Amino acid sequence: MVKRTKPPVVDNTPTLLVELDLCIAKTVKNSDGVSELIVAGRDVYTHCLIVAQVAQHLIERFPNWLREKFFPKGSALIAGCHDLGKVSPSFQKKLYQNLSLPIIQDNIARLLACENISIDEKAWGGHAGVSGITIKLITNRSDLAKIVGQHHGYLASKSLFYKPTDSRFGGEEWLNLRKQLVKKLEQQMEQTFPVELLPIQEKVLSGLTTVADWIGSANHFNQADDCDWLAQIPHCLNEAGFIQPKIIADLSFMDIFAFQANSIQQQFINSVNAPGVYILEAPMGIGKTEAALYAAYKLLANNQAQGIYFALPTQLTSEKIYQRTQQFLDKILVTSVEKSQLMLVHSKSNSRMGEEANPDRSWFNQRKRRILAPFAVGTIDQALMAVLHVKHSFVRSFGLIGKVIIL
């Protein structure tokens, strides 16, 4: 008679990883001199803190009147909370199982061995969805949950059918880790969440969060052993083109265009004294382009605007106006740094600005990102997408705030 024994009990509960500093945000490629290795990158907390600091530095580059209108205190903290959902067993298992080096920590090895943890996150919208429902629980705010939950372009709406304590997300213990992460961000940033957001602020902060994440995910910040990442932020923002333009003051129409303004141009220029909507209707050849550009110059010189988006009906017309706008910028900008930031923005443009935020890809290489340039010439549809329900529409909204938009 063969005596049967019960198989050993395997702990398949998802509450296996309890140290916040072991939760990694991404993997990176390294070389040992022989082969390419996939190793752990930044931990989630440090990555979130980097993004929060990038967001804060971005906000500080806006003029005071724009900061007061669109970025209440605590805006950078919201951006930092975008990746809370990475503190979950499914996301950590997905990253750790791809590492080239053997796992040393027992609790991580147990996490990898747990068959009950699925790395397929499509059912709940991935880590962005977990971020959203976590913030909703912590703050009881749908607007804040939406901002962090849509930082990949669309709101991860599938996650709304789950509770943040769901076993898929690690239950109560992993939720407590995410709460701990928020507390650490609040303490480090010395911020709390804004009390109230207007709809336009919600949209702009969604764009800020996404852009800060793009920059904070750059190669500059990938190395986990680099402790001096804070000092790199200003340089990265400069490379990305987020430079507040320095405008030469007191230029006349003649100084910029080498001829005197006609009566229609002068009437229009005189009427533009503050931000608003202005319409100039005149026959072809009367000089509407120069009138619009000089009106934009007045707002830039008076610190009532911080950039220009010149929107034309077609790609052909945008290409033709590009050189005229470049000549205009050559006249009004103080240094050559800003003069290099003008981009031709339309669907077939190959213009690039800024450094890479991800390996082998310029983060300004996509159309929705080029509209972030301080000065851009493009097509009307690129601006209209800021108010349409399309992916990353809020990035376009963020890119257009404070700019003179010429149609």
Characterization of this structure:
This protein is α/β, with parallel strands linked by helices and 407 residues long. It contains 18 helices and 8 strands. The protein is 44% helix and 8% strand. Helix 1 crosses helix 9 and helix 9 crosses helix 18. The longest helix is centred in the middle third of the chain and has 19 residues. A hairpin with a 2-residue loop joins strand 5 and strand 6.
The total count of strands amounts to 8
Order of helices and strands: EEHHHHHHHHHHHHHEHHEEEHEHHE
Quaternary structure of the protein = single chain
pLDDT averaged residue by residue: 84
Shape: elongated
- Proportion of residues in β-strands: 5-15%
**Helix content, binned percent:** 40-55%
Radius of gyration using CA atoms only:
25 Å
How large is the count of helical segments? 18
User: Which class do the helix and strand fractions yield?
Assistant: alpha/beta
Unreliable runs: 1-15, 350-366
Distance between the termini: 90 Å
Biggest sheet, open or closed, and with what strands and sense?
A: 4 strands, parallel
Strand order of the biggest β-sheet: 4-7-3-8
Descriptive labels:
18 helices; 407 residues; 8 strands; two-stranded antiparallel ribbon; alpha/beta
